[in-house]
Amino acid sequence: MCSFCDQRTISGAQHLPDGNEVREICIKALSEVKSPENSEIAFFGGSFTAIPREYMLELLGAANEFVGEGKFRGIRCSTRPDCIDREVLGILKKYGVTAIELGAQSMCDEVLEANERGHSAEDVRNASALIREYGFELGLQMMTGLYQSTPEKDRATAEEIIALHPNTVRIYPVVVLKGTKLAELYTEGVYRPLPFDEMAELCSELIVKFTAEGIAVIKCGLHASEFVEQDMVAGYYHPAFREICEMYIYRKKTEELLAGETPGSFTVAVGRSCISRAVGQKKANTVYFRERGFNVSFVGEEDIPLYECVLRR
Hints:
alpha/beta, TIM Barrel, six-stranded parallel sheet, three-stranded mixed sheet, 13 helices
C-alpha cells in the first residue's frame, strides 16, 4: 500500500457493495437525478481494475443495466496506471465504461518510489496512451505536497500531465491520515508539509494552468468527510479548499490589474457567477486589498471568462 493510502477513510466506505446494492443505488439515483443522460455511474475510492475479476464483472454488469437511452450516459471508474492493459480496456468498453481516471499522483519517479506507489511515470504515460487509443475519456489525478516532492516537482508533474492531454484533472493536496506510513514519517519529523496558505497558492496556480489548456479541473481537495476529519493528523484538508484556491486566483489577477495604480477605490469585474470566489471567504480579498489602501468592489458581468478580471474606471 502506498504511503498515504487509507481507502476506507478517503472513500467513506465501510463495506464492499455487491451487484444488488449497485442496482439499488442506481434505481434511487434515476428517480432523483434531473438529467441522467448527462450523468455517469462512478466507481471511485480505489483501483477498480485491480479488484478480483469476477467481482469487477459483477459490479459492471449491474451498472450496465442502467446505461443507455433514458438512463445514465455511461460509467466512470478510477484505477492505477499499472492496472490497465488491452484486456481490461476491452472489458470496460463492453460494459459501457466511458471514462477512466488514473491515479498518477506524481510524474517524478523519485517521488513515486519514496511514497511506495509501485508504478512509474512511464506507466502513467503508457496507460494514458492506451486509454485514449480505446476511445475513453481520460482523467488524471495528481497529489501535491507528497513526501520528497517540492513545489517545483509538482509544477513539473502538472506540465507532464498537460502533455498527456487528459480531458479532466483532479488535484489532491496531501492529507496525512492515521495509520499510514506518511503519518509515521510526519510523527518522526521526517516529513513536513508546506504551510497551508503556500499549498493553496500552489494549487491555485495549477488550476489556472490546467484551465488555460482546456483541461477541466473537476476536483481540488478531498471531498468533505467526517472520516477524513477524524483521521487526519496533518495536511491540507478543508471542506472548501477549492474556493480558497480560487480566492487566491482572483487576488493575484486583481493585484496584476492594480500594479502601478495609486491607492484608492476601484471596481473589478468578474464573471457573474464568480463574485463570491473573487471576494473570498469572509470577504478575505476585500480585506486584503483594503489593508493595502485599495477599496476594491467586485461586480459580476456576463461574458467575462472564468478566472479573468477586468478593471472598470
